[in-house]
Structures are given as structure tokens and as C-alpha cells.
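Re: [ENG-882] Designed sequences occasionally contain unexpected residues at chain ends

Forwarding the minimal case from QA. C-alpha cells:
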């Protein structure tokens, strides 16, 4: 007889779904002297309970400024995040990075 699947019940499948990470991208324009590490640290500390990872995925330099794009991974372990909760986390990231770098979210 074939083994039973460990995800055969709907509650088990629901538990896996609740733990799926959410990824959001942001791009900031900052002075050329601002390090990528400063941006990563500011984004991480904006909500260190829910933000699991921050990575740089693009950078563009010109004479005075640079644009650095980051991807953040957000994960809640006990429920699915609402749109409102995701918006709050996004605002925390933007405010934290802008404050730490004196930069601006790229529009």
C-alpha cells in the first residue's frame, strides 16, 4: 500500500499556506556615499520580527546619486498577513531607510 501523504488534511495544507513568505521590492535614491549595507540594516530593523531577509537586486550609479533596489521577505508564522499589515510594514521599511540614508523612495 502506498504511504499516506502528510498534507492530506485541509488544516495541514492551510498551515503551510499561512507560512508562505511575501516578497516586496523597493528602490531608493541615495547619495553615492551611502553603503548598500546601511540600506539592508535599516530595512531589517524596521520590523525584525516579520522581515526575514533583505537583499540587493539592482544598483545604478550616476555622478551624484545611486539607485539601490532591495527585495524584502516578510513572513508571519501564525496567520496570513492582511493587505493593511503589509502596507504598514512597507511604510516602516520606507521610513527607516529614508531616515538612515537621507534618501528617497524612487517613484
Amino acid at each position: 500500500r502506498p504511504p499516506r501523504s502528510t498534507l492530506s488534511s485541509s488544516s495541514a495544507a492551510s498551515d503551510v499556506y499561512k507560512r508562505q513568505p511575501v516578497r516586496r521590492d523597493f528602490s531608493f535614491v541615495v547619495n553615492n556615499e551611502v553603503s548598500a549595507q546601511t540600506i539592508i540594516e535599516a530595512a531589517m530593523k524596521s520590523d525584525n520580527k516579520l522581515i526575514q531577509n533583505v537583499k540587493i537586486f539592482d544598483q545604478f550609479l550616476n555622478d551624484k546619486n545611486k539607485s539601490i533596489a532591495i527585495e524584502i521577505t516578510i513572513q508571519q508564522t501564525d496567520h496570513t498577513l492582511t493587505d493593511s499589515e503589509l502596507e504598514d510594514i512597507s511604510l516602516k521599511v520606507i521610513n527607516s531607510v529614508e531616515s538612515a540614508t537621507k534618501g528617497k523612495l524612487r517613484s
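QA comment: On inspection the terminal residues look reasonable. The beta strands are 22-31, 51-61, 65-74, 104-105. Proposing we downgrade this to a documentation issue.
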